[in-house]
From TrEMBL, chains A, B:
<keyword id="KW-0378">Hydrolase</keyword>
<feature type="active site" description="Proton acceptor">
    <location>
        <position position="64"/>
    </location>
</feature>
<keyword id="KW-0255">Endonuclease</keyword>
<comment type="function">
    <text>Zinc phosphodiesterase, which displays some tRNA 3'-processing endonuclease activity. Probably involved in tRNA maturation, by removing a 3'-trailer from precursor tRNA.</text>
</comment>
<feature type="binding site">
    <location>
        <position position="60"/>
    </location>
    <ligand>
        <name>Zn(2+) 1</name>
    </ligand>
</feature>
<dbReference type="GO" id="GO:0008270">
    <property type="term" value="F:zinc ion binding"/>
</dbReference>
<keyword id="KW-0479">Metal-binding</keyword>
<dbReference type="Pfam" id="PF23023">
    <property type="entry name" value="Anti-Pycsar_Apyc1"/>
</dbReference>
<keyword id="KW-0540">Nuclease</keyword>
<feature type="binding site">
    <location>
        <position position="65"/>
    </location>
    <ligand>
        <name>Zn(2+) 2</name>
    </ligand>
</feature>
<feature type="binding site">
    <location>
        <position position="268"/>
    </location>
    <ligand>
        <name>Zn(2+) 2</name>
    </ligand>
</feature>
<dbReference type="InterPro" id="IPR036866">
    <property type="entry name" value="RibonucZ/Hydroxyglut_hydro"/>
</dbReference>
<feature type="binding site">
    <location>
        <position position="62"/>
    </location>
    <ligand>
        <name>Zn(2+) 1</name>
    </ligand>
</feature>
<comment type="subunit">
    <text>Homodimer.</text>
</comment>
<feature type="binding site">
    <location>
        <position position="64"/>
    </location>
    <ligand>
        <name>Zn(2+) 2</name>
    </ligand>
</feature>
<dbReference type="GO" id="GO:0042781">
    <property type="term" value="F:3'-tRNA processing endoribonuclease activity"/>
</dbReference>
<comment type="similarity">
    <text>Belongs to the RNase Z family.</text>
</comment>
Amino acid sequence: MKLIVLGCYSATPRTFNNPTSQVLEIKGNLFLIDCGEGTQVQLRKNKIKFARIKNIFISHLHGDHFYGLIGLISTFRLLGREADLTIYGPKGIKQAIILQLKLSESWTNFKLRFVELESDEPELIYEDDKVTVTTIPLTHRVYTNGFLFQEKPNERNLNIKAVEDFDISRAYYQKIKNGDDITLEDGRVIPNEQLTFDPTSPKSYAFCSDTVYKVDNVPQLNGVTVLYHESTFLDEHQHLTDKTKHSTAKEAAKIAVKADVKTLILGHYSTRYGSIDVFKDEAQTIFKNVELAEDGKVFEF
Amino acid sequence: MKLIVLGCYSATPRTFNNPTSQVLEIKGNLFLIDCGEGTQVQLRKNKIKFARIKNIFISHLHGDHFYGLIGLISTFRLLGREADLTIYGPKGIKQAIILQLKLSESWTNFKLRFVELESDEPELIYEDDKVTVTTIPLTHRVYTNGFLFQEKPNERNLNIKAVEDFDISRAYYQKIKNGDDITLEDGRVIPNEQLTFDPTSPKSYAFCSDTVYKVDNVPQLNGVTVLYHESTFLDEHQHLTDKTKHSTAKEAAKIAVKADVKTLILGHYSTRYGSIDVFKDEAQTIFKNVELAEDGKVFEF
C-alpha cells in the first residue's frame, strides 16, 4: 500500500496548508479519500493521473473535506473523462453535487454514481478481487465515517525449489498458490505446505477523521497496519475537543495502543501551533511508532 | 481604482494558473468579482483582508467562476466574521450555497444576503455614495452578466488661492466643492467657477467574462476607463467561439475600438497556448492600449 497525503490541515486552505485529501494506492488501484478545496491542484502537483481515480470516499460534508469535489468532477468532465466514477459519502452529497452540475448546465459525459451513507454501524461499501472497504462510524459535529481499507488474503508463495524437485508442471502453479494439494502422476499426494510458504499478511489502512476520541471503534481497528487518526489539538487544548468533536494527539495515540496498530499517522492539525513536531512528541509519550502527515508526503507500507 | 487579478485562466485551476477572480478597489471599498476554486488562498497570497470584502459579484455559475465561493463563505464563518455579506449572482446561487451550509450544519453568524439576477437587461444592482454597479448582459452557454463599476461624479477641486483671497471660512469648503456659489458678508455673490477647478473625471471599470463577441453591449461600454474582456482563444481557434460561447483576443479588441475605451485588459486565456504574449500581439493589430491580466498583477487607473 502507498499513501500520498495531498492535504492534512484542519479548517481552511491556506497558502502553504491544504485541507484533507489523501490518495491510497492498493495493488495498483487508487482510492481518493476526502477532497477539500484545492485537491485537484494537489493531485496535479503530485503527478497523479486523474483517470486512475475511480472511487472517491468522503468522510463528512464539512468544507475542508468536501468543497474540492465539485471542482474535481467538473475538471474530469472538461478533460473528456469516460470512465465511471463512484462517490461514497453522507446522504445529501448527491443533491449538492447534482444541483451544482445542473446550475452550470454541465452534465458529465461519464457515469457518475453515488453511494450515500446513513448507517451508524460499519458497512461493507466496496469490494473487488483485491480490496474491501468498510465504514468506520465516527462521532463529529455532523454525520461522519472513517474508512477501513483491507487487502484480501494474499496467495501462498510458491516454493520454487520444491515444485521443481517434484517436477510439477507450471499449469498447476496457480492451484498450488491457491492452497491446493497436488497428486503426482505416480499417485503420491503432496500436501500444499510442502510446496509453498505462508503468504505475506494482508495489509490494512484505517482513516479516522474527523472524530472525538472514540473507544467504541477499537475492536474494528484491532491490528490494522496503519491508522490515520486526526489530532486537531495538543493536550493543552483538550478542553476544546468536547465542543468541536475533535481529538488530541495523545487521544489518537491511546486508540493506537488499545487497537494494537503497527503505525499511527497523525494529521488534521489546527494551524494555531507553530510546529507540528509537538504532535509527534505528545503522541509518543503513549505510543512509539508515530508518523506525521505532511502535504505531499508519501508513506509506503 | 485599483484592480488586483487573483486568477485569470479559463476552465480548471492548475498548479500555476488560477481560475477567474478579481478584487476591485474603488475609493477604499473592495469588490470581489467572481470566485473560482482557490480564490481564498489567492486572497491570502495577495494579502487582502477578508473583512474588507462586503460585496461579491458572480458572473455565472460555471465552476471556474464560482466554485471557490462556498469555501470563502465557510472560511469567513470560521474566522468569526460579523459584518454582513452580499452576493450578487444568477438565480440559483442562493440555493447552491444554502444547501451546502445546511449539509455541513454550518450556518454563518454574519448576515448573508443574496441578490439573484435573472434579467436580460442592464440593472442597477449596487449603489453607495461613491459607486454604482450595473449588470452587463452577456451571452455565454449559461445565464451570465458582466458588471460595470462606475464612480459617481467627483467633487469639484477647491481653488485654494481664490477662497483665501475672498477670505472664505473653511466651514463653506464642502458646499463649494459640491458646486454652490458663495455670498460674501458684503453681499457679493461669487460664482462657483471662480472658486473651483473642474473635478477629475469619474472612472469606470467594465468586467466582461464569459461571453461571445457581442456588439449589443457597445453603447453601455462606451468610454469606460478600463474594459476587462475575456479572450479565451487566439484567432486560429475563432471557429470554436460559436460552440463554446467565448471570444478571441481580436474580438475583445474590436469591442474596445467600437466602445472607445481607454484601456483593454485581456484574460480568461485557454491554457492550450504556450505564452500569453500572443494574445496581446493579436489584439494590438486592432486596438493599441492592451494589457494582459496575470495572476497577482495589479493595475492602477
